[in-house]
Write a structure and sequence with these properties.
Blueprint (H helix, E strand, L loop, with lengths): L19 E3 L6 E3 H8 L4 H13 L31
Zinc ion binds next to strand 2 and helix 1.
Length: 87
């Protein structure tokens, strides 16, 4: 038997101390540690705006813009070699 009442972070797998939230990038339920990593991600603002826009147009089940690979698994801190535009 599983005790499903206890929440486990769907990203890092840790059990948060009672507090969890939804990801802005996708539909995962994540702990506040993972949320903090999202908030400092360069695309977080984009994710929030897309979410707001979806809600404005009546789409309350917006799945998000997609989780950036850097944030998968709680964020391993691996640098991407993506080319930068502008500077
Ligand atoms: Zn987490």
């Amino acid at each position: 038997m599983n005790h499903s009442s206890e929440m486990t972070c769907q990203r890092c797998g840790k059990k948060p101390c009672g507090t969890w939230t939804c990801s802005m990038f996708n539909t995962q339920r994540i702990c506040m540690e993972c949320k903090a990593k999202e908030r400092v991600h360069p695309r977080y603002r984009e994710a929030v705006e897309a979410d707001n826009e979806a809600i404005r147009t009546g789409n309350y089940r917006f799945p998000g813009i997609g989780l950036p690979p850097e944030l998968e698994g709680g964020g391993r801190g691996e640098e991407d070699q993506a080319p930068r535009e502008g500077g």
